[in-house]
Amino acid sequence: MEISRTAESPAAATTEAAIAAEGLTKRYGGRAAIEDVSFSVRSGAITGFFGPNGAGKTTVLKVISGLARANAGKVLLHGRSARTGDARTLGVLIEPCGAHPGRTAHAHLRSLAAVAGLPRTRVSEVLTLVGLERDARRPVGKYSLGMRQRLGLAAALLADPDILMLDEPTNGLDPHGIRWLRTLLRERADAGRTVLLSSHSLLDAERLVDDVIVIHRGRVAHEGPIGALTARGSSLEDIFLNLTGARDA
After folding, report:
1. What range defines the domain where residue 83 resides?
2. Which of 67, 149, 226, 247 could hold 241 in an S-S bridge, CB 3.0 to 4.6 Å?
3. Is 18 in contact with 188 (CB distance < 8 Å)?
4. Strand, helix or coil at 197?
5. pLDDT of 245
6. What are the residues facing 3 on neighbouring strands?
7. Is 168 helix (H, G, I), strand (E, B) or coil?
């Protein structure tokens, strides 16, 4: 499927993109998980990254974050190679929180802060930000799924990065947590920061995102502002199903 872009597409913007993926290809054995994937994410916006299971979303996010190496292509963060980035540039939540179940949230974040050269005071700040200050001394193994998700978000926010990249960030969060996260991300974007998030919750994402990227079968199927997609009254879910050929018969 060829890429669809509107005239206002982020890829067509003249300003420097916060994230620019150029010709990304990643193969596992003889199979291409993603092939010639190119898109850009603009600063000061929340960009939704959508696709069916197996479409290549997580692979793209791992390549951008450095957790996987592409066979071809490159990633630029504010015009610089992603390899030169640090925690202050890019905060990532892709995998589970990564904390040992016997460690406390405070100890886990304190070790991350030490590696990043951040003051210890920042640990308390992010624990309060994500609502874990009262449970910071409890072993992570006793956390609920939602609490572990909040800890992963705390780790992504630890260095107060300019770019946040989140894979299914509402997983395990209750309605209060989802509203809190939605407000947090909107405030960051309104302040000129950048958010790239992947989610299967299209109804919730439609209320939040400014731009949309849809990936299907390892290639970009659409890139552009959400307003251009929904202006005719269609929902993000309808558009997603049409783009990916997944509409029920």
Report:
1. 1-89+209-249
2. 247
3. no
4. strand
5. 84
6. none
7. coil
